[in-house]
Write a structure and sequence with these properties.
It contains seven helices and three strands. The chain is mainly α and about 160 residues long. Strand 2 and strand 3 form a beta hairpin.
């Protein structure tokens, strides 16, 4: 089918497909390295990273789900697995009886502190070392613009 009939130019299609291919390969390689080096899945890492940056290492489950763009049920199931491994704990919310907090445990903090430098090294080797400083600045601006536009639309 002709690209213009689909509503995008050959240049737009090439850029989009290249971005998707890069993202898939990069995320796949980072995920495999993370799991091999730290025994954390990318999902574990995302949850632990968000919690490690939160005040007191805890966050409402619904806010955590929103920040990692997960459905409530996915977050609930994943947190249950992480609780079973001792990485996080569920805590009740005293303000309202319905809400719950997810809190980083000592084991979870140790896991993210051990995994983070390995992850940074992998990101540097697989991505940062492949782009120039000017390209990196441009990518940061593009990413911020797209994220801002996405944040303006309902999820």
């Amino acid at each position: 089918m002709d690209e213009t009939a689909l509503g995008w130019s050959a240049e737009e299609q090439q850029a989009w497909r290249g971005f998707v291919r890069m993202n898939e390969r990069l995320v796949g390689r980072l995920s495999r390295r993370l799991l091999a080096e730290s025994r954390l899945s990318p999902a574990d890492f995302a949850v632990l990273a968000h919690l490690s940056e939160a005040p007191d290492g805890r966050q409402r489950a619904q806010d955590l789900a929103r920040s990692v763009e997960w459905e409530k049920s996915r977050m609930s199931h994943h947190i249950a697995r992480m609780v079973g491994r001792g990485l996080v704990a569920r805590e009740g919310c005293t303000e309202d009886g319905r809400g719950a907090f997810v809190a980083l445990t000592e084991a979870g903090r140790a896991a993210i502190e051990a995994a983070a430098p390995l992850h940074v090294t992998a990101v540097r080797e697989l991505f940062l070392d492949q782009v120039t400083p000017a390209e990196l600045r441009m990518l940061a601006r593009l990413s911020e613009r797209v994220v801002e536009a996405l944040d303006e639309e309902p999820a």
